Amino acid sequence: MTPSIRPEAEHKKNLAKTQPVDLSLRTSLWLYLASCCLIIFSVLFLDRPISTWMHLNSHASDIFKPLSQMPLLFESLTALTILGCFSRKFRQKYASLALALTFTVITATMTRLGAKFIFGRTWPETWIHTETGSNPSWIHNGIEGFHPFAMGAAYNSFPSGHALFTFALVSVFWWRFSKLYWLWLLAMMGAIAGQLGQNYHFLGDLLAGATLGVLCAQLSISLSKKIRAPRKLKVSSN
């Protein structure tokens, strides 16, 4: 009689298939390559017409205003998770999640600052007003372009920091609570819709931020697993 697969093991295997951070290296590389192609296509052909349409239909953007602040929700959940580890009972259950979130916040912050400085893209709308002038934008000045290593907030549109942090943190929660994958997908799509609906970012900015966010989460989870592995082995041997 051949042994049957344990339901618990089969269930975990099926859940792993729904986790974006647990994909094989080959699959991940193909997905990142496809994402890069989509970003380039958006920058070349989609960003400006979508931004113009959103500006001309500004009444529609009010629907998406609450969604544009999606990162604040998950930043708060992240902070509560990390602070909760001061409790021994909570730490025993969610230490791996808190560690992965900590690494994700660090890598996402560094990636956000570095990428914005490297690409130096102008904004779709004029948001910044100072005594020396306002930031150039596609809507108000007909200016849209990349200015690598340009200094100042006027060139911080690409990638979207909101999308980067949302996708990074949500990916970690997805990894830990994979049964709620539908909720994490809604949160990710909501963040994109909110930022795009408010015309805060070009579509290409959001796609780039989302891609980098998932990458940050993937690297952070891998690092946290490597750090936690020796400790688990030590505990099991005792």
Radius of gyration (CA) equals 20 Å
Instruction: Tell me the total number of β-strands.
Output: 2
Portion in helices: 55-70%
Secondary-structure class:
mainly alpha
Principal-axis shape equals elongated
Given as residue ranges, the uncertain stretches (5+ residues, pLDDT < 50) are 1-5
What series of H and E elements makes up the topology?
HHHHHEEHHHH
Count every helix, treating DSSP H or I runs of 4 or more residues as helices: 9
Q: What is the average of the pLDDT values? A: 88
Strand coverage percent: under 5%
Q: Characterize the main sheet.
A: 2 strands, antiparallel
Strand order of the largest sheet: 1-2
N-end to C-end Cα span: 36 Å
Q: Quick gist of this model?
A:
By secondary structure, the protein is mainly α. It is built from 9 helices and 2 strands, in the order αααααββαααα.
Describe this structure in words.
By secondary structure, this protein is mainly α. 70% of the residues lie in helices and 2% in strands. The chain is built from nine helices and two strands. A two-stranded antiparallel ribbon has the order 1-2. β1 (129-130) and β2 (133-134) form a beta hairpin. Mean pLDDT is 88; it is low at 1-5.
List the helices and strands and how they pair.
Elements: H1 7-17, H2 25-56, H3 58-61, H4 70-84, H5 88-119, E1 129-130, E2 133-134, H6 138-141, H7 161-176, H8 181-197, H9 203-237
Antiparallel strand pairs: 1-2
Helix pairs in contact: 2-9, 4-5, 4-7, 5-7, 5-9, 7-8, 7-9, 8-9
Write out key terms for the chains shown.
9 helices, elongated, single chain, disordered N terminus, 2 strands, two-stranded antiparallel ribbon, 238 residues, 2% strand, mainly alpha
